[in-house]
Amino acid sequence: MVSRRNFLGRSGLAAATTMAAAGVSKVAMAALPEPVIQTSADTAAPLVPPSGRPYNPVVTLNGWTLPWRMNNGVKEFHLVAEPVVREMAPGFKAHLWGYNGQSPGPTIEVVEGDRVRLFVTNRLGELTSIHWHGQRLPNGMDGVTGLNQPGIPPGKTYVYEFVARRPGTFMYHPHADEMVQMAMGMMGFWVTHPKQKHPLIDEVDRDFCFLLNAYDIDPGSATPKIMTMLDFNLWTWNSRIYPAIDPLVVRQNDKVRIRVGNLTMTNHPIHLHGHEFLITGTDGGPTPKTARQYEITADIAVGQMRQLDFIADEPGDWAFHCHKSHHTMNAMGHDVPTMIGVDHREVARKITQLVPDYMVMGERGMKDMTEMEMPLPDNTAPMMAGQGPFGAIGMGGMFSVLKVRADQKRGDYSDPGWYQHPPGTVAYEWTGALAEPSRAQPPAASKSGVEVKVRKPAGGHGGH
Ligand SMILES: [Cu+2]
Known about the structure:
Blueprint: E1 6-8, H1 12-21, H2 26-30, E2 36-38, E3 59-60, E4 69-71, E5 74-89, E6 92-99, E7 108-111, E8 115-122, E9 131-133, E10 157-163, E11 168-173, H3 178-183, E12 188-193, E13 206-215, E14 234-237, E15 248-251, E16 254-262, E17 268-272, E18 277-282, E19 285-286, E20 294-295, E21 297-300, E22 305-312, E23 316-322, H4 345-354, H5 368-371, E24 385-388, E25 391-395, E26 399-405
Parallel strand pairs: 1-2, 3-13, 5-8, 7-12, 13-16, 15-26
Antiparallel strand pairs: 4-5, 5-6, 8-10, 9-11, 11-12, 13-14, 16-22, 17-21, 17-23, 18-19, 18-20, 18-22, 23-26, 24-25
The structure holds copper (II) ion.
């Protein structure tokens, strides 16, 4: 089957939507809608709905929303399951499976009560299906291969149709060979907006969404190891790793919503600095007000979605990340021996005679790694990276920055650069006299005769 593909960048999206919404002949409407393909991994501008009930669109982090066409009052979408090349970070491209040119697939946005028709074309080499995670729908539309429908054979297109009955935050993913297909990146976000003012769903100024996903891609290779169960080396938001995850840019005092869905193999405690949020919605829908409590970390289990609302009233650059420290690192950093406190100057001198490029790693901790220009194999990313205004940030993986600015324009998502701290508001070095701290006498611990000694780092190296 040959479909014309629309290659779109940021600016092309609006044009394609207009085209999709424009009057088309009856013959064209009888055919399925042309698939819209996205080639860019940039965060697309929010897709203001050109047809149907109005709503405040979401911003998909390093992603985009799929345009639709209206056909006799039905919103029609066309998803194409296919191999894609996803740029996880500049210089690092992964060979994944996804939808419409990207992994994750495009976000689908509809309004409560919309009748939705989704054409799903399979351009993979094996069966697939789509499960509409969290939706109320007729059983035969639930997408579990073998249970609710036959798998969609390669080259075929199936049609799903249902009414988006409840507003909230949803996901979609295959229910066919799903261990493989999800390890390869097949998943997407779905938001159903309320059709009118909802007592439990506040209107917000900025509404961000992304999926948590994880991959195991050996440095220098491009295809995920699909049999990995837990020991992934790439912890990603929408198949991107920091510093290639876009910042969440907001205007000071904006009411902000962040929707997160977890399709990895473990839970992720997602942590926001500088603010407290309320979990206003879960997989089950809006959370009753009496059940909400302020949090700064939301643990999101596998298969769950969480909707975090807060007022962004503290200006600055605030870290926003998974609190599992191994999840804020990229590939290369997972099988290195612990060398803290080991004086290996002598062994390093001997090795250097044999291997001139030998590099001592981690004897003072691993932070040095962020400052080293370590030669990397082609097609991978450094373990931790990101330059901030005060030096190396030393983060990778599931990490981004909430940028709150007083002078950010309404609806402007462009990166304002680093926060300019008012004078006297940054931690500073104490340069006065230092008294020796008084220490309690250790109890009779020396009974064992074991003493632990740590060689203090010699000054002179790096710093910032
Ligand atoms: Cu995590």
